[in-house]
Write a structure and sequence with these properties.
This protein is α+β, with helices and mostly antiparallel strands. Helices cover 19% and strands 31% of the residues. The chain has helices spanning 37-44, 74-80, and strands at 5-6, 23-27, 30-31, 50-57, 60-67. Strands 1, 2, 3, 4 and 5 form a 5-stranded antiparallel β-sheet that branches.
């Protein structure tokens, strides 16, 4: 059963607390139960002041909250709607 996306690696300059091996299961309340759910979760971030990432790390559930600085570019926001 698909339960989320396993993180395999991240760019070195990212300063968020995601690690290889984490399994991301929700984004802003959207469950990632099938691959197509990622688009719904991603597009919901266009109008949100933060991104809430639900994940499992070493068998324990956690939530990360990442603040979004400023509004997205209007063209990008329109594309995500």
């Amino acid at each position: 059963r698909f339960v989320g996306w396993r993180i395999l690696g991240l760019p070195e300059d990212w300063t968020i607390d995601l690690k290889p091996g984490d399994v991301v299961s929700t984004v802003n309340g959207f469950a990632l139960e099938k691959p197509d759910d990622v688009w719904n979760a991603w597009s919901a971030t266009a109008s949100s002041p933060d991104i809430k990432i639900g994940l499992e790390r070493a068998g324990k559930k956690q939530e990360l909250v990442l603040r979004i600085d400023g509004a997205p570019d209007p063209k990008i926001a329109d594309a995500l709607r």
